[in-house]
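Lab notebook, design round three. We kept the backbone fixed and only want residue identities now. Task for the bench partner: fill in a sequence for the structure below.
Input structure tokens:
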């Protein structure tokens, strides 16, 4: 199991990387905008300086078409570093971009996954990670546990090198379910991890 932080809050990243066994950080422009930062790339470089060169930093493209995604990816790799995992939505245009990026040796995360079929296509296209949206699927009446289990089984059967990077969580119970279903990694807001260890019954027991 690997835990990633889904945030652009520099203070939170510093604090929780010191406390938890954090394996990396996921982010995107909307998360940075929430922090009120205008220099996106400077902010991403600051996150890299905190987590170090050996941990994955996943950053999402904003373009909706393949050519735009490729330009976004090139900008990320140039203005942050070559080790960035470029997050690409698994759409018709996104699958094409994943294939092209992998042909160039770029780290790619297929994101916005709501079905096993999306995940299967991203795996076959060469994605290093695939990000099923757990809470969003559950809110839609879908079965996130079953979808993640299907992805994990396909990885096991056919030896895909892809990792399941489960995302979109509202509570720690959902994170547990994602891991139990077969996700190797999960990314979440740091408050979810903090809440696990600061519940009143724990602090009362320690006291």
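Proposed sequence:
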């Amino acid at each position: 199991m690997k835990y990633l932080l889904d945030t652009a809050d520099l203070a939170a990243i510093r604090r929780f990387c010191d406390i938890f066994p954090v394996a990396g950080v996921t982010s995107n422009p909307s998360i940075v905008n929430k922090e009120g930062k205008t220099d996106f790339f400077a902010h991403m470089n600051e996150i890299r300086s905190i987590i170090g060169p050996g941990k994955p930093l996943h950053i999402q493209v904003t373009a909706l078409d393949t050519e735009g995604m490729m330009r976004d990816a090139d900008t990320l790799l140039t203005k942050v570093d070559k080790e960035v995992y470029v997050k690409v939505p698994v759409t018709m245009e996104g699958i094409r971009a994943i294939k092209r990026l992998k042909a160039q040796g770029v780290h790619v995360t297929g994101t916005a996954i709501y079905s096993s079929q999306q995940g299967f296509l991203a795996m076959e296209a060469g994605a290093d990670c695939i990000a099923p949206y757990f809470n969003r699927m559950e809110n839609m009446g879908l079965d996130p546990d079953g979808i993640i289990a299907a992805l994990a089984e396909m990885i096991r059967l056919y030896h895909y090198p892809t990792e399941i990077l489960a995302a979109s969580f509202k509570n720690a119970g959902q994170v547990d379910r994602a891991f139990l279903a077969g996700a190797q990694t999960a990314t979440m807001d740091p408050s979810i991890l903090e809440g696990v260890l600061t519940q009143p019954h724990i602090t009362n027991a320690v006291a």
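Keep this in mind before ordering anything: The chain is about 55% helix and 20% strand.
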